[in-house]
Write a structure and sequence with these properties.
Number of strands of chain B: 7
Number of strands of chain A: 6
Shape of chain A: globular
Distance between the termini of chain A: 13 Å
Number of helices of chain B: 8
Structural class of chain A: alpha/beta
Radius of gyration of chain B: 37 Å
Strand order of the largest sheet of chain A: 2-1-3-4-6-5
Number of helices of chain A: 4
Helix content of chain A: 25-40%
Largest sheet of chain B: 5 strands, mixed
Distance between the termini of chain B: 39 Å
Largest sheet of chain A: 6 strands, mixed
Strand content of chain B: 5-15%
Oligomer: heterodimer
Strand order of the largest sheet of chain B: 2-4-5-7-6
Radius of gyration of chain A: 13 Å
Helix content of chain B: 55-70%
Order of helices and strands of chain B: HHHHHEHEEHEEHEE
Order of helices and strands of chain A: EHEHEHEEEH
């Protein structure tokens, strides 16, 4: 089975490392990490992921700006983006992600099984 | 402040009411009788003892004002009447005009002292009213000051909460994923201590997340999404969400939802959050085999208002709340639950939400049996 490519962008190094370790431990995903919003677009263009996990609040280019730039590129606009946010309350999101204004949000801290369910849903698995 | 026992003794006796008025009247009549007897025994109205008659007259004026003074003067004058002829024995003729002159003099003294008494009593009453107004104003000022301090405290906690929540949620997310990773790698392990340790870490992360969630709720409770809502249906929905907890704890539910409840403008989700919070508090307070009663009804808004309130009354059969803790219940981070079981934010968030709807909440111990009664009131819009 081909591994799905996931780009994880979060300014917290610990967060990206943990996500990479957990997702790759499932043997189903190939994960690339970036620690700034500014690097998100370039990484997406190079890596061409199947899904992007994007932190919302980041210094400099935040998650919203990074997503807008990615969605504006017709070669990347089809890639589903899941926002990981510490601001969104659990009540405002389902544990496995919820759609707020056409965007998918997951509230931090997220459980691995919920994260994987959300990823599977977004990838249509 | 209008309580009889709050008055100074001099005010109680110089402006007597009730049984004190009867005692004062009796004393005045007795004094008049005594002076009359003295006059009789000492040889008549020409004797100096007669001047003692001014005492009960002035006393009556002091106690009962101008009418009291006049009444006492008349009684005193009439009381002397039977003694007037006796003065023949002293060789000094007494006439009716002389008697009338004395009665007139008594009346003059009674009326004049009554006027002074009325004036002084008026001044005392005005001073007392001013004093009461000042005390009331002081209490209002103190209460407003307390509310201001509380509001400032809540606002600063709210501001702090959003910042803290974000800063804490990120490392918490890393810990959560770390715990998940360790859980999956120790799945096959036989090291029970390691597995239990990881489970305890997972529980601790959940607890921390609950606190953060409470803080976020607290900081965001000012934004309402209002719609005309049927209060009873919000209660039904909330009860449905705690149904499992009720069944698990063998708690019986007694529902008495008023049929004539009008729709009210509420933030459906926030009010549901309030009810779930109240029901969960009651369930946790009861443990097992309790009785949860939920009533809704319409009640007059009070003496000074023509409006009405929709009331939700929630009663449990738990252990109740210590009296010294009742006034602290709505303070942020105050909890009566065991350590780790409550964030201490639920009630302050709920109160905040209710007050944003112009309602109010009160919590008291039940009078009939052990337990707590929570009353939540929302103003009902005027149908006209």
């Amino acid at each position: 089975m081909t591994k799905k490519k996931i780009l994880v962008v979060d300014d917290e190094g610990g967060m990206t490392r943990m996500l990479k370790r957990n997702l790759e431990a499932t043997n189903r995903y190939n994960v690339r990490t970036e620690n700034s919003g500014a690097a998100a677009y370039t990484a997406a263009a190079e890596f061409l992921p199947d899904l992007i996990l994007l932190d919302v609040m980041m210094p400099g280019v935040d998650g919203g700006d990074a997503a807008a730039k990615i969605k504006a590129d017709k070669n990347l606009s089809h890639i589903p983006i899941v926002f990981l946010s510490a601001i969104v309350k659990k009540e405002e999101t389902q544990p496995t992600g919820s759609n707020i204004g056409g965007l998918t949000f997951l509230a931090k801290p997220v459980k691995l099984e919920d994260l994987i369910t959300c990823i599977e849903k977004q990838l249509g698995e | 402040m209008n309580n009889e026992s709050d008055k100074h003794w001099s005010v109680r006796w110089l402006q007597p009411t009730g049984h004190r008025a009867v005692v004062a009247g009796a004393v005045i009549l007795m004094l008049i009788a005594l002076v009359s007897l003295s006059v009789y025994e000492t040889g008549g109205t020409r004797n100096a003892w007669l001047h003692l008659m001014y005492l009960p007259i002035i006393l009556a004026a002091a106690c009962f004002g101008i009418y009291g003074g006049i009444a006492a003067a008349l009684v005193a004058g009439l009381a002397l009447g039977p003694f007037m002829p006796m003065n023949v024995a002293t060789g000094l003729p007494q006439t009716t005009s002389n008697w009338m002159f004395r009665i007139g003099f008594f009346l003059l003294v009674g009326a004049f002292s009554g006027l002074i008494s009325n004036f002084l009593n008026g001044q005392i009453n005005r001073l007392k009213e001013t004093h009461d107004d000042l005390v009331k104003a002081h209490e209002e000022l103190k209460s407003a000051q307390m509310k201001l301090i509380q509001t400032a405290k809540l606002e600063s906690i709210g501001r702090l909460a959003a910042g803290v929540a974000h800063e804490v949620k990120n490392p918490l997310a890393v810990i959560q994923l770390g715990v998940d990773y360790l859980t999956s790698t120790t799945k096959e392990s036989t090291n029970r201590d390691a597995i239990e340790t990881i489970q305890e870490m997972a529980d601790a992360v959940q607890r921390a997340d609950t606190v953060i969630k409470g803080l976020l709720n607290f900081s965001r409770s000012e934004k309402l999404v209002l719609a005309m809502v049927d209060l009873n249906s919000v209660i039904e929905e909330s009860l449905l969400l705690v149904k499992h907890e009720l069944m698990k704890n063998h708690i019986t539910l007694e529902k008495n939802l008023g049929l004539a409840l009008p729709r009210i403008e509420l933030d459906h989700n926030k009010i549901k959050q309030v009810f779930i919070n109240m029901f969960m508090n009651a369930i946790q307070a009861m443990g097992s085999n309790g009785n949860l009663s939920v009533k809704t009804f319409i009640q007059s808004a009070g003496k000074n208002s023509t409006g009405q309130n929709a009331v939700v009354q929630i009663e449990d059969t738990g252990s109740g709340i210590a009296e010294d803790k009742l006034d602290k219940l709505f303070e942020p981070f105050f909890t009566t639950k065991p350590v780790g079981s409550g964030t201490g934010l639920g009630l302050s968030v709920s109160k905040n939400i209710i007050e944003l709807h112009h309602g109010n909440i009160s919590i008291a111990n039940r009078k009939d049996i052990r337990g707590v009664v929570v009353a939540i009131m929302f103003p009902v819009p005027n149908r006209s």
